[in-house]
Amino acid sequence: MGKAIGVFDSGVGGLTVVKELIRQLPAEDIIYFGDTARVPYGIKSKETVIRFSIENILFLLKQEVKLICIACNTVSSVALPIIQNHFKVPMVGVLESGVREAVYATRNKRIGVIGTRGTIKSRAYEIQIKQLDPQVKVTAAACPLFVPFVEEGWLSGRPVLEVAQSYLKPIKKAGVDTVILGCTHYPLLKPVIREVLGKKVTLIDSAKQVAMEVKNILAQEGLLNKGRRGKQRFYVSDNPEWFSGLAKRFLGRPVRGKKSGAE
Ligand code: DGL
Q1: Are 112 and 180 within 8 A, CB to CB?
Q2: Is residue 70 located within the same domain as residue 100?
Q3: Same domain as 221, residue 188
């Protein structure tokens, strides 16, 4: 393995970003860390999310990564603005690219944002959207039950549809034409979200945009790999079996998680 792209998330959801990185950057090695011992981050305090994030970054830096991609929306919203300047390694979060795409996509200047409680409470999306276009009206809603639904494999059916209808009521009422799926897990619930909001609403899944941003930064820094097939390594802080069982749903293929510290 050469110098890899480091990716971390609170758990398994960041594999949606890894999937895109592999697709767009097939020559790159990837080292993933999922903090399965301490997931979920979405309900934790800002101080705790910052502390966990620093520990995860230090773990990846020990693996000598060339860039760190923060796949977790909660970390990108709550911790990244505070910790970013304390490290030399380039860091990419998931907010900016999703915000850019949403501002570009909206026609009626009404954007909805859904995410964990931590992400919504931070108002990070709203702030960034307003910075790009102060005229956009943002309606945000926390959808805390979506993460356990996805992890339990409930991607469709009556209970998840009813919960989605309830959470998305304010978004629907606001008449938005674009919604940012501001959480690693939500792309897997796209069909349900689409059923509730209707086909005309554009759903923004930031994973694709983030991978493009990683590619641009590596190209700018002259760090892109070419002409080889990249490898991936997956570390978790606890319960590798649980991670490996869920990985297929997020990544599209099974992988084995290895306990960090046990390598
Ligand atoms: N990865 C988190 C996010 O994108 C969702 C799971 C959690 O709450 O830790 O916000």
Answers
A1: yes
A2: no
A3: no
pLDDT tens-digit series, residues 143-168: 999 999 999 999 999 999 999 999 99
Question: Who contacts 147 (Cβ-Cβ below 8 Å, separation ≥6)?
Answer: 13, 40, 42, 116, 183, 185
Distance CA 203, CA 227 (A): 34
* Residue of the CA atom closest to atom 1 of ligand 1: 72
Residue 262 banded pLDDT, cuts 50, 70, 90: low
- Ligand 1 binding pocket, CB closer than 6 Å: 9-11, 13, 39-42, 72-74, 116, 119, 147, 183-185
- Ligand 1 atom nearest the C-alpha of 10 is 9
Query: Domain range holding 105?
Result: 95-206
Closest atom of ligand 1 relative to the 41 alpha carbon: 9
> Can you give the CATH number for the domain in which 187 is found?
3.40.50.1860
How many angstroms is it from 72 CA to the middle of ligand 1? Answer: 6
Pair 201, 212 in one domain: no
pLDDT number for residue 213 = 94
Whole-prediction pTM value? 0.94
12 CA to centre of ligand 1 in angstroms: 9
Residues carrying an active site annotation? 72, 183
List residues bridging with 140 in a β-sheet.
113
Contacts with 245 (C-beta within 8 Å, 6 or more apart), sequence order: none
Residue 37 pLDDT level (bands cut at 50, 70, 90): very high
Alpha-carbon gap, residue 199 to 77, rounded angstroms: 28
User: What length does the chain have?
Assistant: 263
The answer to whether the CB of 260 falls within 8 A of the CB of 59 is yes
pLDDT tens, residue by residue, 223-261: 999 999 999 999 999 999 999 999 998 998 889 899 997
Structure tokens at 202: 């554009």
